[in-house]
Design brief:
The chain is α/β, with parallel strands linked by helices. It has 3 domains: about 90 residues; about 240 residues, 3-Layer(aba) Sandwich (Rossmann fold), CATH 3.40.50.300; about 60 residues, Arc Repressor Mutant, subunit A (Orthogonal Bundle), CATH 1.10.10. The protein has 12 helices and 17 strands. The termini are far apart. About 0% of the residues have low confidence.
Length: about 450
């Protein structure tokens, strides 16, 4: 064999250089990876020792649960182990520091009803006491003549400066003294609490002085006042600042005075914080107030500034302009509107009882006197014609009444107007429908 060197192959030389470089690079990478792994193991060991010394495994778990940075929290800098994140740290903690005495979670048991639901037949067979009224027409407390119930929450709504406080004070004074509401309606006498935050004791002093310019009636000591007072030049807040925290004060009052009949909140928005809640939440809150009154056998009168009260010419009664969902939570409402000579007052209870009356508010600088002047549903104008037509033609329907009043060429609007008047007369109980829907009609109701 000859010692002649092999012929130089450039391509082979390049491949060899690449092979050598690649091997060197891999070796360097392996060494770096090994160094990183050793550092991580050391950091992990240091971390475990540090936790042992500090006894802070539970604290670290809490910070991991709240997504805090553990390294920053524990003052650790440059620890590459902590860069792995909360999940890896939590794994190490659970491995070296398991949670002690952790009882397994029991499956949540769904409670079974403790009793069966009553059926409608059983409920129908129950005997409930007859409905009682705090304000009524005569000494004979029959349902047809009741005006305000004995218990529940009633909303008194009117626009600003229409006479809400004056009307509420007239009711409160007469319940306390056993007088006559609006100088006409009888009441059940009892103690009254009048809560006022849009005024003070001087304001109420002047109001009461105008109601009684000469002598105060017997029984006025039954009317209790909760408002801003001044004693030795020091102002004092009302006892009941709101119904969230003040309900306990009401409980104390009712416990100490068994014969409390009426509580007035003037204005209710000062005691119930419902301005910034949804309509359904408003109704829930007012319904709770209503249930509280019913449970304690008292009437709560809640005064409220409302939008303009207007006449609903379809129903021929007062209604609130706009929508107030919280009305559904009350047992009823009183709407007040100031007219040219008289005030119109609309009473409507939850069970459908409706009554509209008129009253004079005779107010001067030195006196206040409220006087009932009659039913707003008095037979004036077209209502009188409808009533007379029914009286002369028993079992007559609305269409025939319209023909007799307006003639055969009546308009749709006239017919709707007659139907509204008939419905109103039926609601106030002066007429009734007799016979079938097709052949029957309306006739004047005989008073018993």
């Amino acid at each position: 064999m000859s010692d002649t060197p092999a012929k130089y192959d450039p391509e082979q030389d390049t491949k060899e250089k690449l092979r050598r470089n690649k091997k060197t690079a891999y070796g360097r990478d392996n060494q770096e990876q090994l160094a990183v792994k050793e550092k991580l193991e050391k950091d992990e060991s240091d971390f475990i020792e540090m936790v042992k010394k500090r006894n802070s495994s539970d604290e670290i778990r809490e910070y991991i649960a709240n997504k805090f940075n553990v390294a920053d929290r524990m003052g650790i800098k440059g620890n590459s182990f902590l860069a792995k994140g909360n999940d890896e740290i939590l794994r190490i903690l659970n491995e070296y520091f398991p949670v002690k005495n952790k009882s397994p979670q029991k499956e949540k048991e769904i409670p079974t009803p403790s009793r069966d639901f009553p059926n409608a037949l059983a409920m129908l067979s129950k005997n409930f006491p007859e409905k009682e009224y705090l304000v009524f027409d005569s000494s004979d407390e029959v349902e047809e003549k009741g005006l305000l119930p004995l218990k529940g929450a009633i909303l008194l709504g009117a626009a600003i400066r229409e006479g809400k406080t004056t009307l509420a004070l007239d009711l409160a004074i007469n319940v306390a003294t056993g007088g006559k509401f609006l100088n006409h309606f009888n009441v059940k006498q009892g103690k009254v609490l009048y809560c006022l935050k849009q005024g003070d004791e001087e304001f109420l002093h002047n109001k009461l002085r105008n109601f009684f310019p000469e002598n105060a009636p017997q029984g006025l000591e039954n009317l209790f006042i909760d408002t801003f007072t001044t004693d030795d030049r020091e102002s004092k807040l009302p006892t009941i600042e709101n119904l969230d925290s003040g309900q306990s004060n009401l409980d104390i009052l009712l416990k100490n005075h068994e014969d409390v009949r009426l509580i007035v909140f003037d204005m209710i928005d000062d005691y119930l914080n419902i301005d910034n809640v949804s309509g359904s939440e408003k109704m829930r809150i007012t319904n709770e107030l209503n249930n509280y009154a019913r449970k304690n056998d008292i009437l709560i009168l809640a005064l409220k500034h409302t939008a303009k009260i207007q006449k609903d010419y379809a129903k021929k009664s007062l209604t609130i302009q706009g929508h107030m969902k919280e009305l559904g939570g009350y047992s009823g409402n009183i709407l007040l509107r100031k007219g040219k000579d008289e005030h119109e007052i609309h009473f409507e209870l939850r069970e459908g009882k409706v009554r509209d009356i008129r009253a004079e508010f005779l107010i001067t600088d030195k006196s206040i006197h409220l006087e009932y002047t009659g039913e707003e549903n008095g037979f004036d104008g077209i209502r009188r014609k409808v009533y007379n037509t029914i009286e002369l033609n028993p079992r007559i329907n609305a269409k025939k009444i319209t023909v007799l009043i307006y003639g055969e060429s009546y308009t749709k609007g006239q017919y709707q107007n007659i139907r509204g008047e008939v419905s109103k007369l039926e609601k106030i109980g002066v007429i009734e429908r007799r016979g079938s829907r097709k052949t029957g009609g309306y006739e004047v109701k005989l008073l018993k």
